[in-house]
User: Fold this.
Amino acid sequence: MLKVIVSLLLTLAINAKEANAKSKVCPSGWMHLVSACYHLSTYKTTWSKARAACQKLEGDLVVPTNSKENNAVSNIVKQRKLGHPWIGLVRHKDKKFYTVQGGKPSYTNWHPAQPDSPNSENCAHFYDSIGRWNDIPCSQQYHFICQKPPIKRK
Ligand SMILES: [Ca+2]
Assistant:
């Protein structure tokens, strides 16, 4: 009897776990990587217009928060040949970079010797094939990556 109950409880636990995994999904046009949903642009534009486009899609520019996320996004960028896309970090008046959410980044992956131009390069983008970052004038036109949390379906 005990064996049956234990087995039943295990089955329920596994089903619950699977249901939870399936309930975390991304909307159409977005891909799930690591812990978020990502949308890749089909055109190049300035940093501000890229951000506005992401917000219109109810997301924001990507802010990688660890090397796993950064590598996953950088690999997709390479696969899709998106060049050097914008990410969600921008210089404020104090000359430091902040995330689009307004906080100091908890993780950064600047290319060696970057950021290097506090007076003219106020936006951040993926700079090389391994996803390191560079500051560059915000008026440049690049592809961009939007991010939003997965949807939790009830
Ligand atoms: Ca730079």
